[in-house]
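Private note to self, pasted from the team thread so I don't lose it. Backbone tokens:
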């Protein structure tokens, strides 16, 4: 492991016992201590580069105070433009930021855009309440506009400051105001999330030592057997998954120990977003709690879901929520595949400027189009047994597609990525295009794509119906 990875590991390990101590603090002390600890970590790991995050927060605060109506769009533009400057600082004669500064800046960008949207929703609902004299049906809305101190406390809260998960400002406020944090579940769910971390870590170290990424960049790699070269991407993606499984499960454990994101199961919380319905538990009945709000990875479904489009939902789940709510709905395109492509482009930009990110992320819409074409032209015409066999083949190809795309994500450079993809004859691109052509020839492609769009539309429709139902309940109450 590199020195930077050891520092990340140390921060993750320390955050878990520290989280249990935070349950004993009052809200004001918890807010101040969380800010002080997070700011200390930032300064210790970023040094002078900590100013980048401070400038981002101050700029967002000025925008929100100046015009809350346009704050979401302006903050998105401000934070993404600052990301560009942050990554090109060496062009201006400034020192390159540390990897820790980059990690903090990435998460801070998500937080500031989300906060701007939350503040806008607060003001809009407040105006509706004044005009209609009725309680707002919005779930988990702010009760007041945050001050600069609140914004700084949220931005530099030590929980997940470098590793995630992303959480909304309202989730942070709910954490501060928990009436009885010591009565909330802690040790059991924390251990449940940590139990496989040693396994993930051991597998990461073992497989990484046998299949080092650097070997792909050598000319000797091309002299190996084709099937060995093809298998290499599977090993690399396995190492990639084990690394993030271990890190994100440990990061979630740090949130759980502190009680962040703990809500009653009846609130039907979603990763990143928090509760989706208002829920008042019966004081005379036992209440079950969950930590879905801060769940960032579903290891099982990441590996064993069938479709490419579904695989994204279980990986980096809190960021996927952010993309789904703030980027996908505002896409300039209407077709599902194109909207997915736009979202993946924004995701690639958020990750960085390395060409490998774009080559990987923009391959996802092609794979989605291919699986939609095959679903419409082949699967729809099969019986139950045939569909089951189709799904197993689909799952196998989904995993190979992610293996293939992972190479661009880890190799970063366009030359290295193309070097590897050339060595295996761009097999996934060729296969995806072949599936699309086959679907078009059998006239199933468009139908399959429409099915994919309808499927995505149903998800959005169900979410809107849930919000509408809750609004009706709130008015009745």
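Design output:
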């Amino acid at each position: 492991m590199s020195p930077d990875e050891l520092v990340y590991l140390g921060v993750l390990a320390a955050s878990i016992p520290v989280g249990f101590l935070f349950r004993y603090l009052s809200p004001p002390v918890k807010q101040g201590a969380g800010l002080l600890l997070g700011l200390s970590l930032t300064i210790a790991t970023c040094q002078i580069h900590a100013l980048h995050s401070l400038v981002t927060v101050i700029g967002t605060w000025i925008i929100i105070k100046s015009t809350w109506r346009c704050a979401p769009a302006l903050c998105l533009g401000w934070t993404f433009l600052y990301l560009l400057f942050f990554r090109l600082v060496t062009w201006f004669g400034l020192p390159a930021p540390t990897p820790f500064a980059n990690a903090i800046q990435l998460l801070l960008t998500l937080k500031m855009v989300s906060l701007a949207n939350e503040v806008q929703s607060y003001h809009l609902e407040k105006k509706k309440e004044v005009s209609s004299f009725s309680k707002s049906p919005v779930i988990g809305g702010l009760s007041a506009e945050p001050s600069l101190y609140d914004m700084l406390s949220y931005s530099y809260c030590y929980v997940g400051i470098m590793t995630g998960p992303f959480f909304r400002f309202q989730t942070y406020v709910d954490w501060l105001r928990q009436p009885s944090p010591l009565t909330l579940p802690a040790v059991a769910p924390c251990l449940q999330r940590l139990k496989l971390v040693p396994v993930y870590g051991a597998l990461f170290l073992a497989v990484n030592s046998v299949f080092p990424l650097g070997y792909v960049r050598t000319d000797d790699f091309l002299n190996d057997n084709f099937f060995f070269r093809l298998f290499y991407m599977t090993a690399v993606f396995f190492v990639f998954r084990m690394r993030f499984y271990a890190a994100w499960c440990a990061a979630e454990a740090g949130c759980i120990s502190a009680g962040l994101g703990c809500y009653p199961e009846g609130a039907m919380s979603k990763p990143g977003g928090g509760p989706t319905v208002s829920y008042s538990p019966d004081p005379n009945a036992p209440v079950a709690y969950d930590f879905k709000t801060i769940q960032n990875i579903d290891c099982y479904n990441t590996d064993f879901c069938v479709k490419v489009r579904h695989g994204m939902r279980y990986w980096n789940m809190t960021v996927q929520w952010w993309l789904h709510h703030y980027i996908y709905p505002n896409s300039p395109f209407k077709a599902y595949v194109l909207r997915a492509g736009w979202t993946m482009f924004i995701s690639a930009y958020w990750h960085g400027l390395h060409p490998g990110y774009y080559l990987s992320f923009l391959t996802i819409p092609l794979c989605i189009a291919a699986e939609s074409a095959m679903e419409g032209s082949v699967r729809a015409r099969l019986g139950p047994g045939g569909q089951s066999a189709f799904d197993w083949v689909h799952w196998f190809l989904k995993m190979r597609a992610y293996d293939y795309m992972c190479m661009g994500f880890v190799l970063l450079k366009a030359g290295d990525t193309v070097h590897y993809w050339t060595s295996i004859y761009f097999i996934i691109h060729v296969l995806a295009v072949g599936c699309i052509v086959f679907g078009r020839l059998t006239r199933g492609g468009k139908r399959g794509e429409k099915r994919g769009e309808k499927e995505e539309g149903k998800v959005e429709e169900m979410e809107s119906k849930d919000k509408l139902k809750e609004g009706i309940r709130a008015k009745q109450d």
